[in-house]
Amino acid sequence: MRRVPLILGLLLLLLAGAAATGWWYMAIGRHPFSGPFRHDFGEVAITGRAVTVEHTFSLRNRTDTPIVIENSRSGCGCAVAELSTDTVAPGESVEVRVALTLSNAGRKVTNVTLLLRDHDPLPLVVVATSIKETGLSASNDEVRLFPERTTPLLIFAEVQSTDEMPPPPEISATEGIDVTFVGWELLAPRRPEYKHAARWRGRTRVTLA
């Protein structure tokens, strides 16, 4: 009969410990800034080689002491952050403008992390889904040609709306240069569930007459 109170006492002690641990995580996890800390640009159409979209986060200091932002760190070279101030007084706000550059079709998730003095780092997350109906790019911006010699040139296409092979590109060249398109080769199929475009590689032959 003496074992029952002992077991019950241990159970109550464990429950109290779990509750205290949960409170500790809640207290430590409470950030000194109020958000939101995430922004979704939705679908972004890419025209040309790349497009840049911007969003400004407004973060309010909800503590009774100033917060110093020592630095910011981007999760990729495609995201750049600009702060309105590096010291935020109690009750005041800091504006964080994040510019995200998109060049490839598909979903992009990255972050800009604010490094705070005497506080945990604060990640700001940006999300975008890039859409390219059909995009063309060359393997090289410059091609060196030699007389009476054929130079290979690769071109790449991204097709968002269909799995069919793209039509041959229209290629114009100055007089004395002959460009022949050989054909397309599928590199990666389209994945609509992730909004990934089909990727094709085309081969051309360039000849200087």
Question: Which features characterize this protein?
Answer:
about 210 residues; mainly beta; Immunoglobulin-like; 5-stranded mixed beta sheet; 4-stranded antiparallel beta sheet; elongated; disordered N terminus
Average pLDDT: 79
Q: Architecture of the largest domain, according to CATH?
A: Sandwich
Rg estimate, integer Å: 28 Å
**Helix/strand order:** HEEEEEEEEEEEEE
β content, as a range?
A: over 45%
Summarize the structure in short.
The protein has one helix spanning 3-29; strands at 33-34, 38-45, 51-61, 67-74, 79-83, 87-88, 93-102, 106-116, 122-131, 134-138, 150-159, 177-188, 198-208.
Could you explain the architecture of this structure?
The protein is mainly beta. It has three domains: 30 residues; 100 residues, Sandwich (Immunoglobulin-like), CATH 2.60.40; 75 residues, no CATH class. It contains one helix and 13 strands. The strands form three sheets. A five-stranded mixed β-sheet has the order 2-9-8-4-6, with no helix packed on it. A four-stranded antiparallel β-sheet has the order 1-3-7-5, with no helix packed on it. Strand 8 and strand 9 form a beta hairpin. The protein is elongated, with a radius of gyration of 28 Å.
